[in-house]
Design a protein that fits this description.
This protein is 28% helix and 25% strand. By secondary structure, it is an alpha/beta fold. The strands form eight sheets. Strands 15, 16, 17, 19, 20 and 21 form a six-stranded antiparallel sheet that branches. Strands 2-1-9-8 form a four-stranded mixed sheet. A three-stranded parallel sheet has the order 4-3-5, with helices on one face.
């Protein structure tokens, strides 16, 4: 029997009238949610002949429908594949071709993948239906190590990869999150993250539902609506990427949000000090999170009195190892290295990508590709392994420089990439969003006061906004094309500006969640 469905059924039996989901005007109790899952399961099994091991893709914007389908597929033992509703038709068609689902649910008009199967209206009704954990009796018994969800990463470079997420991973993440963030049935969140990514599904939505709390869903992000819903529903906990949180902190409703909030979590990118300050001024606790679709995704938990820049310590069940030059650092020693994570929150691998699975999932651990620094037991994100460039023979991690740039009082956001340089091999080009007109020399001097000379960006460009992926992370591959053409260096070499669209080292993979 599905552990997910069984846990939800227990909550429904204990608190049937408790609100589970609010989706627009629809307020769904736990009893009603279970009834909808029962009808969806019957529809999939008896009308669509879905069986254990089948894949069921969806192209739906409704958070409620997404949740219902995930649990219905879990009850059957099928794999649920929520597809990115923001993709172009050809991109959606390519993902459908890749995962070869038994059926596609939702609006597929114009996608070139054949007619989609719409959910019958009965799934949205609250008519009486027997609620029992065994309502999928005709289906095979589910296995906790079988893929329950197939999530395609947002992929800022190359084709998106399908991450095979097991039910065991979902349950382990939910339990660890409940313990780390003290989730309970008293908690309410407004989920503004898309549910075709791990941030929307697994940072708070599933953990909170499995704790008996309330999830308010949004079909698309709108900062004003997010703020208003958080205030009106008395949100106690929330999650967002830094740019979302920065907008939320400036909204007039933030004072009302502050009165009910006990914890907010930032992920997906380094959180600027100005955002921490805005929350702190309102008396709202904000912590930095880290995660990725392949693990958790909630990989760390806060500890009392920790530095705001720290993500804390590994979540319950996860073992963190820092690896440098092929050697694991002493787990009790301070140091810097690539973060490897092992534990029940680790995914099963990539869908039909054996070579990449073997390269990333090693001996039961995931090579995150993220460089971390451990200081006195606390963990700090330093940057991406691939988000590094070499200047004058020295490694420069973009994350370290970006955090210093964000300390500048006029800088709202910052990103840096390495570009070819005839003298130093590579140098950093920084891109910032600022409150005022910036003096490039002054910004460089600001960084030089805090970092070694080789880490100071060669150029600083001001943008109105940083380009972003569908999941809200900075699309670094687009940054070099946003800058004015760079003049040849004064040394008189025949150095030429990089071609538009060049994929620089340091502009590759951007994580899917907090925290990709």
């Amino acid at each position: 029997m599905s552990a997910l469905v069984h846990t939800l059924a227990q909550i429904g039996a204990r608190s049937p009238s408790k609100t589970a989901i609010v989706d627009g005007a629809r307020v769904v109790s736990y009893a009603a949610l279970l009834a909808k899952i029962a009808r969806a399961t019957r529809f999939l099994v008896h009308e669509q002949s879905v069986r254990a091991g089948d894949r069921v893709a969806s192209v739906v914007a409704s958070g409620e429908d997404t949740i219902v389908l995930l649990f219905a597929c879990a009850a059957i033992g099928a794999t649920f594949v929520p597809l990115n509703t923001r993709l172009a038709p050809g991109e959606v068609a390519a993902l459908v071709h890749t995962c070869r689902p038994r059926l596609v649910l939702g609006d597929t008009g114009g996608l070139g993948i054949g007619a989609g199967i719409s959910l019958p209206p009965s799934l949205g009704e609250d008519a009486s239906w027997p609620v029992s954990p065994s309502y999928a009796a005709s289906a095979s018994v589910t296995r906790s190590d079988a893929p329950a969800v197939l999530l395609f990463t947002s992929g800022s470079t190359g084709a998106p990869k399908g991450v095979c997420i097991t039910e065991a991973q979902i349950v382990a993440n939910a339990r660890a999150t409940k313990d780390a963030w003290d989730l309970s049935d008293r908690d309410v969140t407004v989920n503004a993250a898309p549910m075709f990514h791990a941030g929307g599904l697994f940072v708070l939505t599933l953990p909170l539902l499995l704790a008996g709390g309330t999830v308010v869903t949004m079909s698309r992000f709108d900062e004003s609506a997010w703020a208003a819903l958080s205030a009106s529903h008395g949100a106690t906990i929330g999650f967002g990427v830094p740019t979302m949180l920065e907008r939320l902190a400036r909204d007039p409703s933030f004072d009302a949000i502050a009165r009910t909030s006990r914890l907010w979590v930032s992920g997906g990118a380094p959180c600027p000090p100005s955002v921490f300050a805005a929350f702190r001024e309102k008396g709202v606790r904000l912590i930095a999170g880290f995660g990725m679709t392949e693990v958790g995704p909630n990989c760390f938990q806060p500890v009392d009195g920790m530095d705001e820049a720290s993500v804390g310590v590994p979540s319950a069940g996860l073992v963190a190892t820092l690896v440098t030059d092929g050697q694991a650092l002493d787990p009790n020693a301070d140091g810097t290295g690539e973060l490897w994570l092992a534990g029940p929150q680790v995914a099963a691998g990539y869908f039909e990508r054996d070579d990449e699975t073997r390269a990333t999932f090693v001996g039961g651990a995931v090579r995150t590709g993220d460089v971390f620094t451990r200081k006195k037991g606390l963990y700090f994100v330093t940057g991406r392994v691939k988000d590094m460039y070499i200047s004058g023979g020295e490694n420069v991690y973009a994350g370290e420089v970006e955090r210093v740039l964000a300390l500048h009082p006029a800088v709202l956001e910052a990103a840096i990439v390495g570009v070819p340089d005839a003298t130093w091999g590579e140098v950093g080009h920084a891109f910032v969003v600022s409150r005022t007109v910036l003096d490039e020399a002054e910004v460089r001097a600001f960084v030089r006061e805090r970092l070694a000379a080789y880490k100071v960006p060669k150029r600083v460009f001001t943008l109105d906004a940083l380009p972003r992926t569908a999941s809200g992370k900075v699309a670094k591959g687009a940054l070099p094309t946003r800058a004015p053409l760079v003049q040849p260096p004064a040394c008189g070499t025949d150095f030429q500006p990089p071609a538009r669209g060049t994929d620089f080292q340091g502009s590759s993979l951007v994580r899917d969640f907090p925290g990709s």
